[in-house]
Amino acid sequence: MPQGGIDPGEDPLTAAVRELREETSVSSVQMLAEAPAWLRYDFPPEVRARLSGYWQRYRGQAQRWFLFKFTGDDSEIDLATSHREFAEWRWMPLQQLPGAVVPFKAAVYEAVAAEFGPAVEAVKVAELEAGLQ
């Protein structure tokens, strides 16, 4: 799940699209939903102790989440970017995400899954009805 900062003068949606492209090379997306609130987590003490430089001044993160539908082909996904952040990727059901992240981020991912679950299910139903799946 690409995540990153918002540049000066940039709105959250523009930042999300930019970060997605920078971290995965993906640009073929359709925005389906936006979480209504900022979601936050704190770094646990053992993580804060390992932070250096720029990150030392932060105690956690506040994030704005967007749900995008990928409209491209898997060949578009390329993690070998100039500032590589991911070693691998895979598709997985939304409800499995909280169990796939570090424990201190799990509550945020549970909130994301709860928020976007209905929209994901609606897309699945629409695609089944259209015979696209």
Comma- or semicolon-separated keywords:
alpha+beta; 4 strands; 133 residues; single chain
What is the C-alpha radius of gyration, as a whole number of Å? 16 Å
Low-confidence stretches: none
Give the spatial strand order of the biggest sheet.
Answer: 1-4
End-to-end distance, in Å?
23 Å
Number of helices: 3
Judged by helices, strands and strand pairing, the structural class is alpha+beta
- Mean pLDDT over the residues: 92
Biggest sheet overview: 2 strands, antiparallel
**Order of helical and strand elements:** HEEHEEH
Annotation, overall tally of beta strands: 4
The helicity comes to 25-40%
Taken as a percent bin, the fraction of beta residues is 5-15%
The geometry reads as: globular
Tell me about this structure.
The chain has helices at 12-24, 45-50, 106-129; strands spanning 29-34, 39-42, 60-63, 66-70. The protein is of the alpha+beta class. Strands 1-4 form a two-stranded antiparallel ribbon. It has a two-stranded antiparallel sheet with strand order 2-3.
Topology (elements, then pairings):
Layout: H1 12-24, E1 29-34, E2 39-42, H2 45-50, E3 60-63, E4 66-70, H3 106-129
Antiparallel strand pairs: 1-4, 2-3
Structure, briefly:
With 133 residues, the protein is an alpha+beta fold.
